[in-house]
């Protein structure tokens, strides 16, 4: 059977070509205060009307003390550089010798992007970038300045986005990373650490990890790093966790540093690239993003599919086995509001009930109850439907709950996320619910739900 390509489908429907989407883990489909402007839980990358990509061109070595002072800037959180990926894209550099009279301002005056590597107080290497008609560039970071296409803030575990839980000091870089997409099929997307600021510059200060590679080009890492994990087997029912790596400013792949901001870089992984795959995870030290390719999204469940599954569960009229009252999952637009018919479950055994106030045991931990069906003691929580379709690895029915948060999704999706180690803090990793970012409960993090149908 003939299957049209994405480009042919877009041409038929007169729609722009979509490269893919970035989905932020932890918000189950929308930010607590609403998706507005460039700050949202999901961001689609479309082919731009006109290419805005850049590629490395000339390298300037500035060695006079006065010239180096001109481009010194005070530290502003996580600063870094751009895409010298000549190794990956076959680009070459024109190198100028010592340039005592040249300055960063002279390069900026030409309207070019640049990366500045401060080696010492007396020497800086500046890599000048020029327009690349073959690529589109998208930038991600905490800054709300115009060069950032997708504004990302620190994710609060459990989605408790209230005034008391606000992050006092963000660990996400203002200009965290950039994604460069080829404008021609197969629309390959590559990720690079750091983004260009409003002056079209990336700065790596004296204390930032930086080095000269054997082929002569400079490279470096951002303060807290940009980590990427490509799942084994793509983003499918058979997917398995991959290995977390760090991406450099020029797009090379390294093993992780000892701690997130250590000065010493990891080892170069020469047989891996910065090309994003369907299901790749990008961690910005404060928020984790899932990359879904356009092709992957064509085979993924949709919001309509999840709504149909919700209605199907509710149409079966599941009942509380004790109170015999009918249970129902709330509508997607009320996914965070507890309702009278809300299903609750004992997460140690999976028995689904309506809300009740019995089963407390004096020797049990807070929040734990004894199931009246099987006497198992464990957490008793309301169940919430996982509404973000991008997190599902299949289109199966929502039969399993993640513990301890109670988000419900398909069996294979629940098992997949329960085994994914997500970065936490500067050196820890743990599995977390993709819908609310709550840390999962180890071996019992995924439980099959036991619904009771109507007795009549």
Q: Number of DSSP helices?
A: 7
Rg (CA only): 25 Å
Strand order of the largest sheet: 2-1-18-17-14-15-16
End-to-end C-alpha gap = 47 Å
pLDDT under 50 segments (min length 5)?
67-101, 161-165
* Morphology: elongated
Helix-and-strand structural type: mainly beta
Helix content: 10-25%
Question: How many beta-strand elements?
Answer: 28
Compose a concise summary of this entry.
This protein has 456 residues and is mainly β.
Please describe the topology of this protein:
Layout: H1 6-13, E1 18-24, E2 42-46, E3 53-62, H2 65-71, H3 86-89, E4 94-98, H4 104-109, E5 113-120, E6 123-132, E7 135-141, E8 150-151, E9 177-182, E10 189-193, E11 201-204, E12 210-212, E13 218-220, E14 226-229, E15 244-247, E16 253-254, E17 281-283, E18 288-293, H5 294-298, H6 303-315, E19 344-346, E20 352-353, E21 368-370, E22 377-382, E23 384-385, E24 398-402, E25 407-410, H7 411-418, E26 422-424, E27 428-430, E28 446-448
Walk me through the structure.
The chain is mostly beta strands and 456 residues long. Helices cover 11% and strands 28% of the residues. About 9% of the residues have low confidence.
């Amino acid at each position: 059977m003939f299957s049209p390509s994405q480009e042919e489908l877009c041409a038929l429907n007169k729609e722009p070509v979509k490269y893919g989407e970035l989905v932020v883990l932890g918000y189950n489909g929308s930010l607590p205060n609403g998706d507005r402007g460039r700050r949202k839980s999901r961001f689609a990358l479309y082919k731009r009307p006109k290419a805005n990509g850049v590629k490395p061109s000339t390298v300037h070595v500035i060695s006079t003390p006065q010239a180096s002072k001109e481009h010194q800037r005070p530290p502003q959180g996580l600063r870094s550089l751009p895409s010298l990926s000549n190794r990956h894209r076959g680009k070459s550099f024109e190198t100028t010798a010592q340039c005592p009279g040249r300055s960063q301002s002279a390069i900026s005056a030409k309207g070019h992007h640049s990366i500045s590597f401060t080696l010492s107080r007396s020497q800086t290497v500046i890599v000048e970038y020029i327009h690349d008609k073959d690529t589109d560039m998208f930038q991600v970071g905490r800054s709300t300045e115009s060069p950032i296409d997708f504004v990302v803030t620190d994710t609060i575990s459990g989605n408790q986005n209230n005034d008391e839980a606000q992050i006092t000091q963000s660990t996400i870089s203002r200009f965290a990373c950039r994604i460069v997409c080829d404008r021609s099929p197969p629309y390959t997307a590559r990720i690079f650490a750091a983004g260009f600021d409003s002056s079209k510059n990336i700065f790596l200060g004296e204390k930032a990890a930086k080095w000269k590679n054997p082929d002569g080009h400079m490279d470096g890492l951002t303060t807290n790093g940009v980590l990427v994990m490509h799942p084994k087997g793509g983003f499918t029912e058979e997917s398995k966790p991959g290995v977390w790596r760090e991406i450099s400013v020029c797009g090379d792949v390294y093993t992780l540093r000892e701690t997130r901001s250590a000065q010493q870089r990891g080892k170069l992984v020469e047989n891996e690239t910065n090309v994003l795959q369907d299901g790749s995870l990008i961690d910005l030290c404060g928020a984790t993003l899932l990359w879904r390719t356009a092709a992957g999204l064509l085979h993924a469940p949709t919001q309509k599919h999840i709504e149909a599954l919700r209605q199907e569960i509710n149409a079966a009229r599941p009942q509380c086995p004790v109170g015999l009252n009918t249970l129902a999952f709330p509508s997607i637009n009320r996914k965070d509001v507890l309702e009278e018919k809300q299903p609750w479950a004992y997460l140690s055994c999976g028995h689904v009930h309506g809300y009740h106030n019995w089963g407390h045991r004096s020797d049990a931990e807070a929040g734990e109850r004894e199931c009246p069906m099987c006497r198992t003691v464990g957490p008793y929580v309301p169940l919430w439907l996982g509404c973000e379709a991008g997190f599902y690895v299949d289109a199966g029915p929502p039969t399993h709950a993640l513990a301890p948060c109670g988000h419900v999704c398909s069996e294979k999706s629940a098992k997949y996320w329960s085994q994914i180690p997500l970065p936490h803090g500067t050196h820890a990793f743990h599995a977390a619910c993709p819908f609310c970012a709550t840390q999962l409960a180890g071996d019992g993090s995924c439980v099959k739900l036991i619904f009771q149908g109507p007795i009549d």
